[in-house]
Every structure is written in C-alpha cells, then in structure tokens.
C-alpha cells in the first residue's frame, strides 16, 4: 500500500489525497510501452489505455499527470545498463518516473509466447520494492487472439514478483482488433477493443483515485541512501 504522505494510517478506500502542493489532487500515471516499431501497435494500445484512465480521473476531479516511457528509444541505454552499473540520464529519468508513479500501464508486444526481451530488461532495472502495492494495468499486442494468455502466463508473474497491485482486468489487442477483418474471429468483434480499453482504464482509475498520492522527490533530487547496518550484513540480509 502506498505511503501516507501525511504520516497517518493509509486508507485504501478513503478520499483522495495529494502530496503535490502545486497540483492538488494530481495522480501520476506512467505508461511503459515495449513496442519496437514506429508506429507501434503497443504504443497505440498504451496511449488509449492511458487516455481512458485519465478521462475517468478527470471526471472525478483529479488531475492526471501522464508520463510515457517508450522503451524503443532507450534500447541502447538499457542494454548498456545491463552490463555496466552506470545509467544514462534518460534511462535514470524513466526509472525515477516509474518508481514514483501512482499507477502504471505496462504494454508489451508478444514474442515467442512471452513479453519482449527489451521489456523484461527494463523491469529488471527497477529497484526491488520500489513498486510495492502500486496499481499496474497490463496490456499486450499480438498477431492473433491465441496469444492472449501471455498476459496471465508471463506478465502477471513478473509484476507479482515486483509486489505490485496487478489489476484483474487487462487488454490484449490482436491484429484484427484494430479493424474489422474478413474471416476474423467473431469474439473480437462482439467485444470491441475500445470497449475493453475503456473498462480497463476505469478499473485502474478507480483504484488510483482511492489510494493516497505517493510522495515525489524534487526534480533532480537523489534517492535517499539506504544504509544497511553491518550486523545485518553479517546475518546475510
């Protein structure tokens, strides 16, 4: 559960609170798109999911601050960070946004029945515990609806490991979801993509709105340094 910035007991279902004195009631949504193409169907899906969630937050009087992280543009930085402890300024800024988000929308293309390697590498760089109890809405794209179980078999375990609040709803968009295709499966047309996106976005917004806003560091401020006492190190922490 998110930390109560006022120091009181966290209230998961109480009135929205905010820590940003300049935009009272603001919530920060971070959209992580693992799409590799330009244009990218994963990026399009991520944008639509973010817009759906932002619309609901706005209707509730909450200011949605949406930050998009497009992993395609950070591919070289991510690869370098996997073998070198230093991180580029752009990659560190993206990680900072994710680790301070009030809600995350994560979308990956489906490769070999799983998420892409670039998508996994980015989340490997997120600090353990940084996203504990943060609501996460999952999305994926693929060639056919037969790949839709990838969200449950690959993405949910990843975000469960990160201790996030993975929402039950998710959106998978197959190629024929983006437009009616002759011979396409009827199930994708009887439950239109935009309808599923709107429902999932509303689910994320309802959770984010009822959690206290997470405290944010000032721009350029370093993360607090965690010092582990030597006796704990000896005990193998």
Please describe what this structure looks like:
The protein has 237 residues and is an alpha/beta fold. The protein is 37% helix and 16% strand. The protein has eight helices and five strands; from the N terminus they run E-H-E-H-H-E-H-E-H-E-H-H-H. The protein has a five-stranded parallel sheet, sandwiched between helices. Helix 1 crosses helix 7 (193-210). The longest helix has 19 residues, at 41-59. The radius of gyration is 19 Å and the shape is globular. Mean pLDDT is 84; it is low at 1-18.
Enumerate the strands of the largest sheet in spatial order, edge to edge or round the barrel.
2-1-3-4-5
Proportion of helical residues? 25-40%
Q: Please, what is the oligomeric state?
A: single chain
Total strands: the figure is 5
Number of helices: 8
The major sheet is characterized as: 5 strands, parallel
Query: Tell me, what's the shape?
Result: globular
Radius of gyration, Cα only, in angstroms? Answer: 19 Å
User: Structural class, please?
Assistant: alpha/beta
Note the run of SSEs as H and E. Answer: EHEHHEHEHEHHH
Give average pLDDT, whole number: 84
Rounded to the nearest angstrom, the distance between the terminal CA atoms is 23 Å
Give the DSSP E fraction (strand runs of 2 or more residues). 15-25%
Weakly predicted, low-confidence segments: 1-18
């Amino acid at each position: 559960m998110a930390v109560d910035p006022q120091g009181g007991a966290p209230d998961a279902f109480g009135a929205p609170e905010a820590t940003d004195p300049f935009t009272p009631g603001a919530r920060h949504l971070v959209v992580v798109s693992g799409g590799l193409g330009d244009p990218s169907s994963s990026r399009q899906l991520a944008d639509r999911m973010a817009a759906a969630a932002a619309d609901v937050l706005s209707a509730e009087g909450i200011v949605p601050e949406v930050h998009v992280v497009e992993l395609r543009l950070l591919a070289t930085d991510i690869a370098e960070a996997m073998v070198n402890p230093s991180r580029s300024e752009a990659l560190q800024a993206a990680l900072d946004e994710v680790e301070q988000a009030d809600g995350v929308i994560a979308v990956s293309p489906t490769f070999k029945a799983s998420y892409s390697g670039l998508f996994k590498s980015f989340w490997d760089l997120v600090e353990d515990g940084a996203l504990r109890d943060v609501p996460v809405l999952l999305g994926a794209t693929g060639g056919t609806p037969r790949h839709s179980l990838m969200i449950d078999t690959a993405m949910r375990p990843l975000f469960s490991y990160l201790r996030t609040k993975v929402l039950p709803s998710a959106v998978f968009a197959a190629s024929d979801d983006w437009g009616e295709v002759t011979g396409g499966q009827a199930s994708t047309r009887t439950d239109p993509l935009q309808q599923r996106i709107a429902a999932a976005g509303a689910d994320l917004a309802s959770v984010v709105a009822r959690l206290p806003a997470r405290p944010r560091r000032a721009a350029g401020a370093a993360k607090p340094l965690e010092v582990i006492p030597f006796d704990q190190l000896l005990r193998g922490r």
